[in-house]
Amino acid sequence: MAADYKQNPFTLTYDEAITENVQSKVNLQPVKYQLNGLSIAANFYTPTNFDQNKKYPAIVVAHPNGGVKEQVAGLYAQKLAEQGYVTIAFDAAYQGVSGGEPRYIDKPANRIEDMRGAVDFISQFKGVDTNRIGLLGICGGGGYSIKAAETDKRFKSVATISMFNSGDVRRKGFMRSQTNNIQERLKQASDARAQEAAGGEILYTLAFAAGMTPEQVATLPYDLYRQGYEYYAQTHAHPNS
After folding, report:
1. Which of 39, 109, 136, 166 would disulfide-bridge 99, Cβ 3.0–4.6 Å?
2. Mean pLDDT by 10 residues, the chain (241 residues)
3. Which of 123-129's residues contact partners 24+ apart within 8 Å by CB, and which partners?
4. What pLDDT is recorded for position 119?
């Protein structure tokens, strides 16, 4: 269920979100840390009656493509904290309120490094059992999580929700719908990079047109994109996503 982020001091968009820190309940601490010269913004959740002198399992939560920590990633981070985990939901570099220019870059290598940065941070937090750190990736974050867990052995377990394989989709199109124009799209990408390098306008790939009507949303060809627009742009919209 959705909640009005404007009424939440942490600007969380989901129902039953934390509104204040109470000692006997799950707590949320906004944090920032450095990753390759960029400031990364994250929300750090601790379980009920957290005691830093004890050891707790921890989970890094990676948000979907285009999402931010205040949306579904934060929802899962909070629910997992309610189950006794220390969790962290972060904004990817170049996205949300994390640093990096140009804005809204979503390169796989960056997203994987984001997860390594999050485990760097959470491993240093007193009370975290570094032998029990897991990784949860949602949608696009799920595809990146699988790749991150292949090489970063600090993650002892990995799970995904509605995993989206960004690499396959960018190469071949959603549901392999663009296999006939790969060279054309590569040319467009090369031209865009050349234009940016020459100081020209930065070109963005439009995920969704802003302000679509319910009738326009209904015409989107795939459930994934239709439901995604409804969630990220309507019911659980956040200005940073």
Report:
1. 39
2. 94 97 95 98 97 97 95 98 98 97 91 98 97 97 96 98 91 91 94 96 76 83 86 91 89
3. 123/154, 125/44, 125/58, 125/86, 126/52, 127/46, 127/50, 127/51, 127/52, 127/53, 127/54, 127/55, 127/56, 127/86, 128/55, 128/56, 128/58, 128/86, 129/55, 129/56, 129/57, 129/58
4. 98
Average pLDDT, the chain: 94
| C-alpha to C-alpha distance for 121 and 219, rounded to whole angstroms | 43
Total-model pTM = 0.92
Evaluate the omega torsion of the peptide bond into residue 9 and state whether it is cis, within 30 degrees of 0: no
Helix 140-151 to helix 108-123 angle (10° resolution) is 70
